[in-house]
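Q&A log
Question type: sequence-to-structure
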Amino acid sequence: MQLLDGKLTAAAYKAQLAAQVKNLQSQGLRPPHLAAILVGDNGASETYVASKVKNCAEVGFESTLIRLTANTTEAELLDTITQCNNNDAIDGILVQLPLPKHISEQKVIEAIDPAKDVDGFHPVSVGKLVQGLDTFVPATPYGIMLMLEHYNINTKGKHAVVIGRSNIVGRPMSVLLSSNHPYGNCTVTVAHSHTHNLADLCKQADIVVAALGKPGFVTADMIKPGAVVIDVGITRVADATKKTGFAIKGDVDFDSVAPLTSYITPVPGGVGLMTIAGLLQNTLKAYLFRKGITL
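Response status: OK
Response body:
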């Protein structure tokens, strides 16, 4: 069993990004600029956005955090997005999800200029992904693909089971793993809440991607010896032994599953860090596309 270390892998990609930014600045060009919009005061969202801003600084990107109150109207948020769309100094825009219930997430996603859609959620980005065209890939699946590449994990002809069908992780992950590229070419089964015999399907899989948001759901009896297991789950679970009062748990019962695997991601320290790496890569991509620069 080998850990797919998100910290080390993300650091390697961030070092490459930092070098590229320095190269751009040496040519008299400004660095890439990410605008993050945070609506309300959700604790987890605050943490995620703060991490994104911190990582931008670490690679030399500029970032702007736009804070809006929880009672911000949908129209006000859409106006803020329009301002960012029209601001030539901003290359990438993300709106941190979830949003307050009175705001339509779909309207917000569709309001973002596809050329600045670094989250990869816009229908234009999704359509291009499905057609195998160059586009922005949602950051978590993108980060997972970067990790597979970093560890040079052979995926060709393998059977992958993706547990979860969200537009953020499950669906794009299935497209990427089945795509015709060096870290794709899998036969993919997408499992969800209505899937029968899920344990049997997982037991057949060479690669399991767990993205359903249920701590410890994937257990040892569901895993084939030698499988690659990617745990996307990040759930706060009450834990009185922690200063924070909670522990971060993944969708995989790590202690029982890990000894069976060839590779496995830990939680924390795995996919979450690679999600940030994927977002940073998308932001550089948006910048280069808008500037007409090829590195």
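Response note: The mean pLDDT is 96.
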